[in-house]
Amino acid sequence: MNSSYRLSFASIALALLFVFTAPIAPAQDRQVFQGRKIAPPNDRLHIQTEQVVRVTTAVPSAQETVAIFGANLYRDNIQPVWVRVENLGDKLLFLTPMGLDDGYYTAREAAQRIRRSDSEDLRSEEFENRGIVRLQLPPHSVQSGYIFSRVDEGTKSFNVDVIGDSSHYMMTFFVPVPGLKLDHYEVDFKNLYPESEQKQVDLAGLLDELESMPCCVRDEKGETRGDPLNLVFVGEGKSMFYALMRAGWDETETIYGGSLFKTAASALSGGTYRYSPVSALYVFGRPQDIAMQRARSSIHERNHLRLWLTPLRHEGKPVWIGQISRDIGVHFTWKTITTHKIDPDVDETREFLVEDLAYAQSLSKFGYVGGVGAAPYDQPRGNLTGDPYFTDGKRVIMWMADQSTNISEIEALDLSAIGGTVIPGQ
Amino acid sequence: MNNLRVVRTTISIIALTFLAACASKPYSPVDVSTSSFLQRTTTQEQGNIRVTAAVPSAAEAKALTGVDVYQQGIQPVWLKVENNGDQRVRVTPWSIDRNYFSPIEVAYMNRKKFSSQGYDDMQRWFYENRLERRVPPGESRSGLVYTHLMPGTKGFNLDLFTASGSLNFTFFVPMAGFTADYKRVDFDNLYADTGVRELAVGELQSVLEGELPCCSTDASGEKNGGPFNVVLVGSDVAVRRSLLRANWNETAANDPSTADARLHHYRGRPPDTVFVQRREDSDERLELRLWLAPWRGDDKRVWVGQARFSNSKTRLFDMDSNFFARFARENVGADVDSAVNYVLQRFWYNQSLIKMGIVQGAGASTPEKPHRSFTGAEYFTAGYLTVMLLSEEPVAMDETEFIYSQEQKEPGDGSEQ
């Protein structure tokens, strides 16, 4: 994304120097809780500034964690994220690691996990010295250290939240870690639609255009119709990513035709961490621009979300269309060997997403429009893997909030008077 | 060769017969309205909205759904929403359980037990008996929501939305065979002798710093236990609702996993209540011990407490695999401040924190020179008390107000030098 860019001031030599010196320094030379400066794990730094807060992040690869911590942390489902926060203002702020991962490990918990599976004599102090152990960011101070998050596949996408007195600074980072490619990095969003093809629309125009958008995803050849396109986002990619990640969604890799076996093989050899690529579905003649997933109670139960940028712009913001499905099990197909069985009640899954984002304090308003076409329970339609689904035929339009919005402030719009629709009691 | 073939064929036939027997079961739908658990409903009303809740026991849920859902970690909750107002109402299953199971998901999980027609019938039953999200004015809807099984009393929040805002309900449905620890405490008479002092929240700082002891004690009151590190202030509803939103589970007074926690005393009594929180992908659970304090802040009850990590595995195994963990230098539980950080953030991220402040508490100790509790457990801390004011209404993260002086120059704030 625009706001995050690479900085390459650190030379390879410096990085190597750090890699070889840091882990060997004797433990007794460092004191837990003493002010200290933790060097970044590599030269792939990402920086963002939001008013009085400047955040720099970097994510070491599995190999790099061996050099820094003396063990491969990834093997124990730990992905350390290096975070440096500068509080440039006059007020106390808090860095809340839960924004990065709501199940993050404390420094010594990370040490203990490693010790259990590794015979090496790793000490908590080694981790505490390098970890973020205090949330407070005093005025005009700089803090740096690692947050021990759970492993995400490939590109590490995460939010960094800094909270102050009646204020909240939200930042989203995408830090590629060697090994995986993500759709949204492959897409040149700026040039996807030349100026001449972009359409500025008012609310009535938006509803009109959305009604006539394709009902469903298609296969690669564009011949067979699949899952319904039943959700729409209005918002900058940045706010959309922040919101989804806040609600526990992760970006995921896509399987493209021939790469199926390669991907499966890499998943097998990739170690023990969670890994579940999704298949490509097509709209506007191209595969999804963004694929995301949210694990529920177990890692085998996931919801999948695919999004495409449309040529529409509303209130100065891009408009996205998408599809969501809830995996409720695995079944076998001739076409793709195994596939996830999706919940045929696709409206249920759609409404779950509305609530998921509302509770992440990320929606300002929502409403409904037609376009999918109704299919009742007893006359379901089929998706690309032959699973039936039924629906009321509506699309939900969600406006992303630019700042935290509590659930009581979200507006439920009745769009029926201007070409939209309403679900009784929406 | 021949023998092998016979054996193989026999096994196949047995297996096929077995499979066929399993999969030929029809599904016998049950009329929910005739279920016995509906005789134990609780009802709450706000404005023109009336909500009734009931939770079937394991056996009742099996009789109702035809499958042993408790065995699968699923606890159905039955709800009836009566909308006597003139606005549409939206029900949010997410507010009950953010990872709820969809009705057809539960059916699909159990498909193998039934014949093909049996599965179709089951799927339809689960679909038709779901709780619909939308309740038009003047109408009512009832149905089942499939939540994660919770030990003990089934506590859950339910948020409803209308065009003019949200209505927030909190339910506690007692389950047979379980009594939460706080049910045994007579809170109204705890301080009948000494009285309860009314304070403004602003005055609470000096009272906490001057009058709250550093630590809990043993039963005799002679030896120090763990440090007090959190203070909760809020109406009873706000505190219960916030704990639920933040995913805390209540415990029974005789729960063996909380036996150690109950050795700690304040004013001569063990914790009035102990809440625990299991964490995904971790063996370390969080423990929150709370005592009602003899003060009220802005007319709300004040709770003093101890937050810490405790390993959820049995000690026997823990000792073997994790020798170092017994010492303050390595023990996850010894780092009590990290537990407070978790508690604080959970409230923050779950829209419950209206105000927060940090005051002087137990005083500092370090991993090299830890303090020791009468139980022998060592701990270290920067020594502060985190005061959290909890709200009944949802609060966005940027609406939290900081109170008390925040000028801390604690050692180990982790600043770069």
List keywords for this structure.
A: Immunoglobulin-like; 2 domains; 10-stranded mixed sheet; 5-stranded antiparallel sheet; 27 strands; 33% strand; globular; disordered N terminus; B: 417 residues; alpha+beta; 4-stranded antiparallel sheet; 21 strands; 23% helix
Overview of this protein structure:
- The complex is a heterodimer of chains A (426) and B (417).
- Chain A is an alpha+beta fold and 426 residues long.
- Helices cover 20% and strands 33% of the residues of chain A.
- The radius of gyration of chain A is 23 Å and the shape is globular.
- Chain A starts with 5 loop residues before the first strand and ends in a 14-residue tail after the last strand.
- Mean pLDDT of chain A is 80; it is low at 1-35 and 258-275.
- In chain B, 23% of the residues lie in helices and 29% in strands.
- In chain B, helix 4 (103-109) runs antiparallel to helix 5 (116-128).
- By secondary structure, chain B is α+β, with helices and mostly antiparallel strands.
- In chain B, strands 9, 12, 13, 14, 15, 16, 17, 20 and 21 form a 9-stranded mixed sheet that branches.
- Chain B folds into 2 domains: 25-173, Immunoglobulin-like; 181-402, no CATH class.
- Chain B has helices at 2-23, 58-65, 93-96, 103-109, 116-128, 201-211, 236-245, 315-321, 336-349, and strands spanning 42-46, 49-54, 74-83, 89-91, 134-135, 140-148, 154-162, 165-173, 197-199, 215-217, 224-227, 230-234, 249-250, 273-277, 284-297, 300-311, 353-360, 371-372, 378-379, 384-390, 401-402.
- Chains A and B meet through helix 3, helix 4, strand 7, strand 8 and strand 21 of A and helix 3, helix 4, strand 5, helix 9 and strand 21 of B.
> What form of chain A results from the Cα inertia axes?
globular
Summarize the amount of helix of chain B as a percent range: 10-25%
Number of helical regions of chain B: 9
DSSP strand count of chain B: 21
Give the number of helices of chain A: 10
Summarize the helices and strands and which ones pair or pack:
The complex is a heterodimer of chains A (426) and B (417).
Chain A lengths: L5 E2 L4 H10 L23 E6 L2 E6 L3 H8 L9 E9 L5 E4 L10 H11 L6 H7 L5 E2 L3 E9 L6 E9 L2 E9 L7 H4 L2 H4 L6 E3 L1 H9 L4 E3 L6 E4 L2 E4 L2 H10 L3 E2 L2 E2 L4 H10 L8 E2 L2 E2 L2 E2 L2 E6 L6 E13 L2 E17 L3 E6 L3 H14 L3 E7 L11 E2 L5 E2 L5 E6 L10 E2 L14
Parallel strand pairs in A: 10-20, 13-26, 15-16, 23-27
Antiparallel strand pairs in A: 1-2, 2-3, 3-4, 4-7, 5-6, 5-8, 8-9, 11-12, 13-21, 14-19, 17-18, 19-20, 20-21, 21-22, 23-26, 24-25
Chain B lengths: L1 H22 L18 E5 L2 E6 L3 H8 L8 E10 L5 E3 L1 H4 L6 H7 L6 H13 L5 E2 L4 E9 L5 E9 L2 E9 L23 E3 L1 H11 L3 E3 L6 E4 L2 E5 L1 H10 L3 E2 L22 E5 L6 E14 L2 E12 L3 H7 L14 H14 L3 E8 L10 E2 L5 E2 L4 E7 L10 E2 L15
Parallel strand pairs in B: 9-15, 12-20, 17-21
Antiparallel strand pairs in B: 1-2, 2-3, 3-6, 4-5, 4-7, 7-8, 10-11, 12-16, 13-14, 14-15, 15-16, 17-20, 18-19
Helix pairs in contact in B: 4-5
